[in-house]
């Protein structure tokens, strides 16, 4: 047994050590698509990367993206990814994927192709995974943007009736996620109003037929996040007044079922999903009223999940970009347990000048 004095000394030492460590404060990083000329009467601004504290305070523009001399025409943005191993942010913008340091410095365009709707970083493999809108492809590249290769074709067909020069895919990956540990590639198949789905396939699979539909009938699925065995996704909503939500599925119910060939994907998906938050639950958060009195939904664009169980916290950013621009940062915590468990929403910041028109959110320790 440890003598008491030694124990006390050790205790003192450890608390002294702790107080000497620099106080680390976690931050949220936001990708703002910017505001163009249609947004009157709101001030126009360039596409930007912003940071706030996890309380939504101290909002700061850390980098503006796109040409300096043309603030009326921001380049636009779609998705943000944080890479802890390289301390970088990858922003999918109208100019392609732009890498910056975590403080927003040293912006560099890595990939300029098509419209890139989602981006994520596979840390162990050291690759960027991203998805294109018109081709409906998921691709990957080195962290410097070189060696681009197609990983998966998620288009489910190409609509040729638009003409040869612009032939959009029926579906594109509105969200992409790589589970390197278990070897899965997850994506949101986004297209029309209620035909979206969340799918996965083995990362190494060369066989395009082998994929699983985890959830379907979704109105524009976007961001995906995986915490343990729980997969979360954002349902953005196709139109300005569509409902919006964050939902989740417990993947342990999926593991035992056989992989379905994609040709059978029209059959209904039977897995149980849960709603974390739905816009119908809180008009004060999700209904935006513009200067003409018109109503729109503050659509959930991106979210992050930290921790598990009662300690779990989710932050999301929502926006409405109709006549007037609205940006909101909301925190979700859990109250009660079991069937009584209830999501509690708290608006941390709803100043559009602070948040911009947010499309991406990342948490950095
Ligand atoms: C927030 O900003 C205030 C004023 O600039 C500063 O004193 C404070 O340290 C900042 N807090 C954080 C957590 O960055
Ligand atoms: C992707 O699949 C579609 C059919 O679903 C096909 O028309 C298209 O050419 C494919 N794209 C590539 C790059 O192979
Ligand atoms: C293909 O595009 C045409 C023209 O816009 C449209 O009418 C049709 O519904 C589209 N087909 C599908 C399957 O989306
Ligand atoms: C949300 O409200 C709309 C309009 O009232 C309704 O059609 C829809 O079923 C509701 N959805 C949920 C999940 O409550």
TrEMBL record:
UniProt cross-references to SUPFAM superfamilies, sorted A to Z: YWTD domain
InterPro entries listed in its UniProt record: 6-blade_b-propeller_TolB-like
Keyword Signal among UniProt keywords: yes
Keywords, comma-separated and alphabetical: Signal
Signal peptide positions (record): 1-16
Protein name listed in UniProt: Uncharacterized protein
Source organism (scientific name): Neocucurbitaria cava
């Amino acid at each position: 047994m440890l003598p008491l004095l030694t124990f006390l000394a050790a205790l003192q030492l450890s608390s002294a050590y702790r107080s000497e460590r620099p106080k680390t404060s976690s931050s949220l990083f936001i990708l703002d698509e910017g505001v163009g000329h249609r947004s009157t009467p709101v001030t126009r601004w360039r596409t930007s990367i912003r940071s706030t504290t996890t309380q939504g305070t101290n909002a700061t523009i850390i980098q503006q993206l796109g040409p300096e001399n043309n603030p009326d025409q921001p380049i636009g943005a779609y998705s943000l990814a944080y890479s802890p191993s390289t301390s970088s942010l990858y922003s999918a913008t109208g100019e392609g994927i732009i890498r910056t340091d975590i403080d927003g410095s040293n912006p560099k365009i890595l990939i300029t192709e098509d419209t890139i709707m989602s981006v994520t970083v596979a840390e162990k493999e050291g690759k960027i995974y991203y998805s294109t809108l018109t081709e409906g492809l998921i691709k990957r590249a080195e962290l410097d943007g070189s060696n681009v290769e197609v990983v998966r074709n998620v288009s489910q067909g190409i609509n040729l009736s638009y003409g040869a020069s612009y032939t959009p895919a029926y579906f594109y990956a509105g969200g992409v996620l790589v589970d390197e540990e278990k070897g899965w590639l997850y994506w949101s198949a986004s297209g029309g109003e209620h035909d979206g789905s969340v799918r996965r396939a083995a990362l190494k699979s060369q066989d395009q037929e082998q994929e699983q539909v985890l959830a379907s009938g979704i109105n524009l699925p976007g961001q995906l996040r995986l915490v343990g065995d729980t997969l979360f996704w954002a349902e953005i909503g196709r139109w300005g007044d569509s409902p919006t939500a964050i939902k989740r599925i417990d993947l342990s119910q999926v593991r035992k079922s056989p992989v379905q060939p994609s040709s059978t994907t029209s059959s209904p998906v039977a897995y149980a999903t849960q709603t974390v938050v739905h816009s119908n639950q809180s008009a004060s958060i999700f209904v935006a009223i513009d200067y003409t009195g018109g109503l729109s939904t503050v659509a959930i664009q991106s979210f992050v999940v930290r921790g598990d169980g009662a300690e779990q916290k989710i932050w999301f950013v929502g926006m409405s970009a109709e006549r007037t621009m609205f940006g909101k940062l909301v925190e979700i915590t859990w109250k009660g347990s079991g069937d009584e468990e209830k999501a509690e929403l708290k608006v941390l910041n709803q100043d559009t000048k602070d948040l911009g028109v947010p499309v991406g959110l990342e948490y950095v320790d």
